[in-house]
Write a structure and sequence with these properties.
Helix content: 40-55%
Number of helices: 20
Radius of gyration: 28 Å
Number of strands: 15
Strand content: 5-15%
Shape: globular
Distance between the termini: 102 Å
């Protein structure tokens, strides 16, 4: 008897009966859609496609430690600590890199030699994230790496993505690519393994691109590079060997696995069309910056773990896990390494080549994503190539539209992010205003703009902290209609919704009595009230309490119901906190009302004090 004989035989019909609850559920209702509109169904037949060539089966991926702060000696010490903790690679991030996000190090050839002194970089795979200015010192870095005995170096600079993010380059995009081709030849002369140029999907991803848009832009970038190689007399094969791919991976494991597999398929197809043989793209994966949250950052570890799993299963040669907090915290750096150590040495994810092969779901999603990305690539080429698509604003515009749609779904909680727009740990303070980026709706622009999904809620939290610091408590009075079934549920849900914006709920002591509620509201010092109601609460009662609270001075009255009626359409209700409503907009109105009422009270108190002084 074999091991498989121990399991019962299950047919496709058996699975369908289970998923549909014996026909009571329409399976089409269980199909989700990706940002690109790709269907993600509940059931798939077994896959039969061959594995996609990627990282060699049984080969360990490079555990890359991101380093974006410090002077040369400090960086060298950080590298030694990282190596002792399991790192086999390092990513040095220059201050002008598009991935620096306000941090970074000043680096050139001499700095690199100082870091490498006493063998700090020996045996490591070194990557340097460069920007438009720092890439000018790349030739010195190649010499410095060669003199320091470094065997592998990746100069991670994508001039096209940088042009899209920063709006300009010191020269033209074509000139920048041509200079990188020369760097590739310099690396050949120095006998250095690695890449001289990358197609960097992170820039597009962080600006809001879908998976297909990210891959399509990378393909178009590579195509431009090959055109310039032809024009300047450089060998296509040499460029392909020096061209690396960088992809963002996020907590959506299936899509991230499919994205890495689709990238392999797409670049293999591109190389075949260009007549390039015997070259396989090397993929560096980095956990997504746009999925990171400043509030309750420990949840970032869970997101990063899912993303790291996807990168490992997707076959990345190199992986960098972003630390849970972006402030150089040693614990955060250690956990970024430990996530990979567990995946390598406890889960042994490196031992199987392309474990997604054979999964009908993964194979279908990979193929559909590759097709969508190829169509995006063709659309960019039809516009005259990627530089033209950037110059006209068409590509940044499509990505901005995708970003805004996704942020809208975060605001309505169609996309739930634990610790951000649902299930907030109220014991953890919101981010301070000084840590905050401006709100996401800063107006149209042809430039890519990196936006984390949590930013709109973090901006609300920053406003709440600023109000509290100015002596205006960011509180909302919670009025209960009655004690019927669901009222406690509605109160808890409303309080959780308020907490996403840094607001605190003050509950009424006695439910059902409008006069008591009015008195409690007056004593609370709040300027805004929220009515929580169970399923049996009547519209008449809700309208009566809302009107009474407004007569008592409430500048704004919100509502949250339970069960089948979380929202209600009454003229006296100014907004709802229930899922489906724009929580960012409603909490913004709430903070506006609190701020205006607080300033009036402060001005009134100042006038009274002034009159008292005069008398």
């Amino acid at each position: 008897m074999t091991g498989t004989d121990l399991f019962p035989r299950v047919s496709a019909a058996d699975w369908e009966a289970l998923a549909s609850r014996a026909g009571r559920v329409d399976l089409s209702m269980l199909t989700a859609r990706s940002d690109d509109g790709l269907p993600v169904g509940p059931l798939y037949p077994a896959g039969d496609a061959p594995p996609i060539a990627g990282r060699t089966p049984g080969a360990r991926w490079i555990v890359a430690q991101r380093i974006d702060d410090g002077e040369a000696e400090t960086i060298a010490a950080t590298v030694r600590t990282a190596v002792a903790g399991g790192a086999t690679g390092a990513v040095l991030v220059a201050t002008d890199s598009t991935s620096a996000h306000g941090r970074g190090i000043a680096i050139d050839g001499e700095t690199l030699k100082r870091i490498a002194r006493d063998g700090a970089l020996d045996g490591l795979a070194l990557r340097i994230d460069l920007g438009a200015d720092s890439v000018a010192t790349a030739a010195g870095m190649i010499r410095g790496a060669s003199e320091a005995g470094i065997d592998s170096l990746c100069l991670a600079f994508d001039p096209v993505a940088t042009r899209a993010a920063q709006g300009a380059l010191p020269g033209s995009g074509e000139e920048a690519i041509a200079s990188l081709l020369v760097l590739g030849a310099t690396m050949d002369e120095a006998a250095l393994d690695g890449e001289a140029m990358v197609a960097d999907g992170r820039v597009w991803h962080d600006a809001g691109a879908s998976e297909a848009q990210e891959l399509g832009a990378m393909l178009a970038t590579a195509t431009l590079a090959f055109r310039i190689a032809d024009e300047t007399g450089h060998d296509r094969g040499a460029l392909a060997r020096r061209l690396g791919l960088i992809l963002a991976v996020d907590a959506d494991q299936f899509l991230s696995i499919a994205k890495l597999r689709a990238a392999r398929q797409l670049f293999a197809r591109l190389y075949a069309l260009l007549g390039i043989e015997g070259v396989a793209s090397r993929v560096h994966a980095e956990t997504s910056f746009r999925m990171m949250s400043r509030r309750d950052p420990y949840l970032n570890m869970l997101r990063a773990t899912g993303a790291a799993f996807a990168a490992a299963v997707g076959g990345a040669e190199t992986l960098a896990v972003l630390p849970l907090a972006p402030d150089g915290d040693p614990f955060a750096d250690r956990m970024a390494r430990n996530i990979q150590s567990i995946a390598l040495d406890e889960a042994s994810l490196f031992r199987v080549g392309d474990p997604g092969a054979g999964s009908g779901a993964i194979e279908a999603l990979s193929g559909e994503l590759a097709e969508a990305a190829w169509n995006e690539f063709r659309a960019i080429e039809a516009e005259g190539g990627i530089l033209a698509a950037i110059a006209t604003g068409s590509l940044p515009g499509r990505i901005a539209a995708m970003r805004d749609d996704r942020l809208g779904r975060v605001a309505t909680r169609a996309i739930e992010i634990v610790g951000v727009n649902v299930h907030v740990d109220r014991s953890r303070p919101p981010a301070t205003a000084g840590e905050q980026a401006p709100p996401a709706d800063a107006g149209p622009s042809s430039r890519l703009r990196s936006v984390r999904l949590a930013e709109p809620f973090e901006h609300l939290c920053a406003r709440s902290r600023d109000l509290a610091a100015s002596g205006i408590p960011p509180v909302v009075f919670m009025g209960r209609i009655d004690t019927s079934a669901g009222t406690d549920e509605a109160v808890a849900a409303a309080a959780d919704a308020l907490a996403t914006g840094g607001l605190e709920a003050i509950e009424a002591v006695e439910p059902g009595d409008d006069q008591a509620s009015d008195a409690a509201f007056a004593q609370s010092g709040a300027a805004v009230a929220c009515i929580a109601a169970g399923e049996s609460a009547s519209e008449v009662a809700i309208a009566g309490m809302a009107a009474s609270l407004k007569d008592a001075g409430a500048a704004l009255v919100l509502f949250h119901g339970s069960g089948k009626r979380p929202v209600i359409d009454l003229p006296v209700i100014d907004g709802t906190l229930a899922p489906g409503a724009d929580l960012v907009a409603n909490l913004g109105k709430t903070l506006d009302a609190i701020a205006n009422a607080g300033k009036k009270m402060q001005n009134h108190a100042g006038d009274q004090k002034a009159r008292g002084s005069e008398s």
